[in-house]
Amino acid sequence: MASATDTQEVKAKGVSTPKVDARTAHEQVVNNKDVSSFFELLRKLADINASTDWINKILHDNDELHATVKQKESDCDSLLRFITKLQGNLDIEVGNSLRAISQSEEAKTKAEKLTTEIEGAKKTIADKDQQLKERATKITELQASVEALEKQVKDRDGTITTHKERQAKDGARIKELEASLGTTKTELNARSSQLKDLQSLSREVVDGSRENVLNEINKIYGYAKSLAIEHFSADLPTDILANTALIEEVGKLVRPIPFPATNSPAAKKARMAAFLARLGSRLADRIFLPFYPLDGDDEDQDSADSMALMLSDLSLSDPKREIHLRSVLLAISPEEQKEVALARASDIADEIINLLGILLNPEQQPKFKNDIKKLCQLAVESWISLQVLREKVEPFTETSEETEKYWLPAELEGSAQPKKPQVNGKPNGLVSKPSLHSLKSANKVILIWPGFSYGADVLKQGFMLLDSQVKHADDEARPLKREKRAMQRASLSAVQSHRLSTGRKPKMMSRGD
Predict the structure, then answer these.
(1) pTM, whole model, 2 decimals?
(2) Is residue 241 located within the same domain as residue 313?
(3) What per-residue confidence (pLDDT) applies to 479?
């Protein structure tokens, strides 16, 4: 039988002992002994000398053996039951051990997790402690700020009290001002009504650009130059050239430009220059004005000239006053002023036709008449658009000095399309180029086309003929014998001569550099 000590050792070691069938083991021991006894009996039986005692002894031994076997079987059964019970207890203990091991592993894992959580909690607590310290610092600062704000509130309360006192005073003042405002509004309404009445008596002035103004002026000159080239660069009829009286009479009216009775290149250039000079001077005198007074007698015309001169002076000394006066003058019957301008344009066209158009071939004269009238109407339309500009645009035909700031030598060759020389580094749009030498080196200069100013600045130079440019034409136009000239001049109509000689004195531009 197994002892209690052996059982405890098995439990302590925690080893699983295999189950043993006690009955089978006992039977194997008994069977082995029986077999041995059986063979011993056979051996003794084989011995002829064996006695009956021995057989009885054998039987007795056999009975004892049977009793022993039964006792052994009983002991084996007890041992088997004990082993079975012990095996069950062992299985229970092994299961308990396995569960304890598993629980130990779980407890270890939980312990590690708790350790990690404890470390994290420690760090969190440290962070919270730091935050609490920072918040404590902020709270201290905020307390100081609150104290400062409380002081400010007290100060503002005092200020509000002061303001309320002032507001009470201001309220009384406002009531006084409201009463005064009512009176002022009444006066303002009256003044506004007066202002509207005054505005209705003036024309609105607008802002313009130098480029647009220059384009309008160049458009007029470009058209005039194209007509000069188209109609006066061709040969004149021989019968016209033979009419010495007519040629000399025209030459007298276009002086100092020479007017030879030939078809040479110099004579053609002189005729083109005469056309431009006559047209330019008449447009400057009659069309390029700040306003158009209604036509009247000579005294009224002199008054209009004085008014235009006054506006010209005011544009330099008092531009605002000049703009106001010009706007008032332009508002006086604007439609009638335009009619006056168109009538003047028609007169200028007729004058040019009667002076120079009669020199052309008969088949050219209708087209020339139509072209010159169209040109004069174009000049009126362009100039009317320039009259209302804030910056005053004026022509000038004379200057205090004859320099290239104001004048350029006329170029009477090339196409009718204008080129673009420069004025102070800006495009001028004139069909001309600067001379190779100064204008001061010339013995004399002859006005061909007026220049133009924009405000206080020169916008576009005028054109002049140098003595060198008219030398050949001057040589060709030397006078014939006195008697022949007198006879031929008599053939020209006195009425026509009077009409062709109508003119006005040129304007003078004197401007600082």
Answers:
(1) 0.55
(2) yes
(3) 58
